[in-house]
Design a protein that fits this description.
The protein has 248 residues and is α/β, with parallel strands linked by helices. It has a single domain, classed as 3-Layer(aba) Sandwich (Rossmann fold). Helix content is 36%, strand content 24%. A hairpin with a 2-residue loop joins strand 1 and strand 2. The longest helix has 16 residues.
Length: 248
């Protein structure tokens, strides 16, 4: 469903992403981890068509993102780390607006909106202005909106930011349920327990390069911290050469 072939992204003389190759099969959840400045956001922007690779190619459902970006956008949903919402619309109006962008049938869109609002616990506030929503409610509305058109690929940057424990649990369960129905998820997160709990595979990037990729259990084995948390695996894999990994 998602394939990156030797993708690089340069900004002047600085290389943010270097020869990155990844493959995510349909119905799988891949966690994308790395320290700040590792190249995660640049990679996600290239996947969704907000930036062009300096070299290499990205395919979504077999379509080259650079060749037919509109066809790719029709197949994906994207949640950036700081989404902006039109505060003077209601949640219901916003979902109708999103449905219009994807040219959904009006009756299907209305039914889908009602389902999404109920699923994310927003039905009782559907006709309130978005500006009256808490940060967590806005996060849930964003997620409802990107699933509105039934995407085949979901690209999510830090989805748990601002969610309370109930909202975080809802989102984890939803991602797993959607993946079982065939949705592919590419998930960037600093919350390592989320990746450990939700993801089928984890890719670790550091200084623009892929340094590890595989199921969490496999990465534990490879890093020598079998049976311990993904956080410890991450610290081991991204430690500077010669830098001790603290036990504190």
């Amino acid at each position: 469903m998602l394939r990156l072939d030797a993708v690089s992204r340069r900004y002047g003389t600085f290389t943010a992403v270097q020869s990155l190759s990844l493959h995510v099969a349909a119905g799988r959840i891949m966690g994308f981890l790395g320290p700040n400045g590792a190249g995660k956001t640049s990679t996600m922007k290239m996947i969704v068509g907000l930036a062009r690779p300096s070299s290499g190619a990205i395919y979504v459902d077999g379509i080259n993102v650079a060749v037919d970006p509109l066809a790719v956008k029709a197949r994906l949903g994207y949640v950036p780390d700081r989404p902006n919402l039109p505060n003077r619309l209601t949640a219901r109006e916003y979902l109708a607006f999103v449905a219009g962008l994807y040219r959904m049938d009006p009756q299907d869109a209305a039914q889908r909106s009602a389902h999404q609002l109920a699923l994310f616990g927003l039905a009782g506030r559907a006709d309130d202005l978005i500006e009256s929503y808490s940060h967590g409610m806005k996060q849930r509305l964003v997620m409802a909106s990107v699933l509105q058109h039934r995407p085949r690929l979901l690209v999510v940057d830090e989805p748990m930011v601002g969610l309370d424990p109930r909202g975080a649990r809802l989102l984890k369960d939803l991602l797993r349920a959607e993946a079982e129905r065939g949705l592919t998820v590419f998930l960037s997160t600093h919350t390592l327990e989320v990746a450990d709990e939700v993801c089928d595979e984890v890719a670790v990037i550091d200084r623009g390069r892929l340094i590890a990729c595989g199921p969490p259990a496999e990465l534990r084995s490879r890093s020598g911290v079998q049976g311990r948390t993904l956080e410890e695996v991450f610290l081991q894999l991204t430690a500077e050469e010669g830098e001790p990994v603290s036990d504190f």
